[in-house]
Amino acid sequence: MNKKGFTLVEVLSVIAVLAVILTISVMSISGIRDKSLKKILETKIEQIEQAGILYGQENPDSLSNTSCGEITTINKEGEESKFTPEFCVDVTVGKLIDGNYIEKKYLEDDYDMINDVTNKSMKEDTVTVYRKNNRIYATMKEIKSNS
Protein backbone atom coordinates (compact mmCIF):
# COMPACT_ATOMS: atom_id res chain seq x y z
CA MET A 1 0.00 0.00 0.00
CA ASN A 2 1.36 3.41 -1.01
CA LYS A 3 0.84 6.09 1.65
CA LYS A 4 -0.03 9.56 0.31
CA GLY A 5 -0.43 12.69 2.47
CA PHE A 6 -0.29 13.16 6.23
CA THR A 7 -2.30 11.58 8.98
CA LEU A 8 -4.65 13.65 11.12
CA VAL A 9 -2.33 13.26 14.14
CA GLU A 10 0.65 14.62 12.18
CA VAL A 11 -1.30 17.66 10.95
CA LEU A 12 -2.62 18.41 14.45
CA SER A 13 0.88 18.08 15.91
CA VAL A 14 2.29 20.60 13.45
CA ILE A 15 -0.58 23.03 14.14
CA ALA A 16 0.01 22.71 17.91
CA VAL A 17 3.74 23.41 17.55
CA LEU A 18 3.04 26.44 15.33
CA ALA A 19 0.49 27.75 17.85
CA VAL A 20 3.07 27.54 20.66
CA ILE A 21 5.70 29.33 18.55
CA LEU A 22 3.20 32.03 17.55
CA THR A 23 2.13 32.58 21.18
CA ILE A 24 5.73 32.98 22.34
CA SER A 25 6.47 35.39 19.48
CA VAL A 26 3.43 37.58 20.11
CA MET A 27 4.16 37.80 23.84
CA SER A 28 7.79 38.85 23.29
CA ILE A 29 6.83 41.40 20.62
CA SER A 30 4.18 42.97 22.86
CA GLY A 31 6.75 43.21 25.68
CA ILE A 32 9.18 45.00 23.38
CA ARG A 33 6.40 47.36 22.26
CA ASP A 34 5.45 48.19 25.87
CA LYS A 35 9.07 48.96 26.76
CA SER A 36 9.37 51.20 23.71
CA LEU A 37 6.22 53.14 24.61
CA LYS A 38 7.45 53.61 28.19
CA LYS A 39 10.80 54.90 26.90
CA ILE A 40 9.00 57.38 24.62
CA LEU A 41 6.94 58.55 27.61
CA GLU A 42 10.10 58.99 29.70
CA THR A 43 11.57 61.15 26.92
CA LYS A 44 8.42 63.28 26.83
CA ILE A 45 8.49 63.70 30.61
CA GLU A 46 12.12 64.85 30.40
CA GLN A 47 11.07 67.33 27.71
CA ILE A 48 8.20 68.60 29.89
CA GLU A 49 10.56 69.05 32.85
CA GLN A 50 13.02 70.97 30.66
CA ALA A 51 10.14 73.16 29.49
CA GLY A 52 9.19 73.71 33.16
CA ILE A 53 12.73 74.86 33.94
CA LEU A 54 12.63 77.28 31.02
CA TYR A 55 9.23 78.54 32.21
CA GLY A 56 10.65 79.12 35.72
CA GLN A 57 13.69 80.95 34.34
CA GLU A 58 11.55 83.24 32.19
CA ASN A 59 8.92 83.78 34.92
CA PRO A 60 10.80 83.87 38.23
CA ASP A 61 8.07 85.99 39.84
CA SER A 62 5.58 83.15 39.31
CA LEU A 63 7.48 81.07 41.90
CA SER A 64 5.53 82.06 44.97
CA ASN A 65 6.32 81.23 48.56
CA THR A 66 3.31 78.96 48.84
CA SER A 67 3.88 75.26 49.23
CA CYS A 68 3.38 72.96 46.27
CA GLY A 69 3.63 69.95 48.54
CA GLU A 70 6.39 67.47 49.12
CA ILE A 71 8.73 66.64 46.23
CA THR A 72 10.65 63.41 45.89
CA THR A 73 13.94 63.51 44.02
CA ILE A 74 16.27 60.66 43.08
CA ASN A 75 20.03 61.21 42.95
CA LYS A 76 22.55 59.51 40.64
CA GLU A 77 22.92 56.58 43.03
CA GLY A 78 19.15 55.99 42.97
CA GLU A 79 18.57 57.22 46.51
CA GLU A 80 15.35 59.13 47.21
CA SER A 81 15.14 62.34 49.17
CA LYS A 82 12.02 64.32 50.03
CA PHE A 83 11.64 68.00 50.71
CA THR A 84 9.09 70.81 50.51
CA PRO A 85 10.30 73.75 48.42
CA GLU A 86 9.66 77.29 49.63
CA PHE A 87 9.30 78.86 46.19
CA CYS A 88 7.36 76.90 43.61
CA VAL A 89 4.47 76.84 41.18
CA ASP A 90 2.43 74.05 39.61
CA VAL A 91 2.07 74.43 35.85
CA THR A 92 0.01 72.27 33.50
CA VAL A 93 1.52 70.81 30.36
CA GLY A 94 -1.17 72.69 28.45
CA LYS A 95 0.19 76.00 29.75
CA LEU A 96 3.71 75.01 28.71
CA ILE A 97 2.42 74.10 25.24
CA ASP A 98 0.50 77.38 24.92
CA GLY A 99 3.61 79.31 25.95
CA ASN A 100 5.73 77.51 23.31
CA TYR A 101 8.05 76.03 25.92
CA ILE A 102 7.75 72.52 24.41
CA GLU A 103 9.26 71.74 21.02
CA LYS A 104 6.74 71.07 18.25
CA LYS A 105 8.31 67.70 17.42
CA TYR A 106 6.95 66.30 20.71
CA LEU A 107 3.40 67.48 19.99
CA GLU A 108 0.55 65.91 18.08
CA ASP A 109 -0.92 68.34 15.53
CA ASP A 110 1.17 71.18 17.08
CA TYR A 111 -1.16 71.59 20.08
CA ASP A 112 -1.31 68.44 22.20
CA MET A 113 1.09 66.01 23.84
CA ILE A 114 -0.08 62.41 23.99
CA ASN A 115 0.88 59.84 26.63
CA ASP A 116 1.98 56.96 24.39
CA VAL A 117 1.32 54.34 27.06
CA THR A 118 -2.34 55.26 27.66
CA ASN A 119 -2.95 57.22 24.43
CA LYS A 120 -4.47 60.10 26.44
CA SER A 121 -3.77 63.83 26.33
CA MET A 122 -1.14 65.09 28.77
CA LYS A 123 -2.41 68.71 28.75
CA GLU A 124 -3.86 68.39 32.27
CA ASP A 125 -0.74 66.74 33.74
CA THR A 126 1.10 68.93 36.23
CA VAL A 127 4.77 69.82 36.51
CA THR A 128 6.09 71.48 39.65
CA VAL A 129 8.63 74.23 38.98
CA TYR A 130 10.65 75.16 42.06
CA ARG A 131 13.72 77.04 43.21
CA LYS A 132 16.35 75.34 45.32
CA ASN A 133 19.76 76.84 46.10
CA ASN A 134 19.04 79.67 43.64
CA ARG A 135 18.54 77.23 40.75
CA ILE A 136 15.32 76.39 38.95
CA TYR A 137 14.18 72.75 38.79
CA ALA A 138 11.08 71.02 37.53
CA THR A 139 9.56 67.62 38.19
CA MET A 140 6.40 65.92 37.03
CA LYS A 141 4.05 65.95 39.99
CA GLU A 142 0.82 64.53 38.73
CA ILE A 143 0.42 62.46 35.59
CA LYS A 144 -3.36 62.28 35.16
CA SER A 145 -2.98 60.72 31.72
CA ASN A 146 -1.61 57.51 33.29
CA SER A 147 -4.97 56.58 34.78
Would you write up a description of this structure?
The strands form three sheets. A three-stranded antiparallel β-sheet has the order 3-6-7. A two-stranded antiparallel sheet has the order 1-2. A two-stranded antiparallel sheet has the order 4-5. The mean pLDDT is 87. It has helices at residues 8-58, 93-98, and strands at 71-74, 80-83, 87-92, 114-115, 120-121, 126-132, 135-142. The chain has 147 residues and is an alpha+beta fold. The protein has one domain (8-146).
Which helices and strands occur, and which strands form pairs?
Elements: H1 8-58, E1 71-74, E2 80-83, E3 87-92, H2 93-98, E4 114-115, E5 120-121, E6 126-132, E7 135-142
Antiparallel strand pairs: 1-2, 3-6, 4-5, 6-7
Strand content: 15-25%
- Summarize the main sheet: 3 strands, antiparallel
Number of individual domains: 1
Low-confidence stretches: none
Return the string of H and E elements. Answer: HEEEHEEEE
**3D shape:** elongated
CA radius of gyration is 25 Å
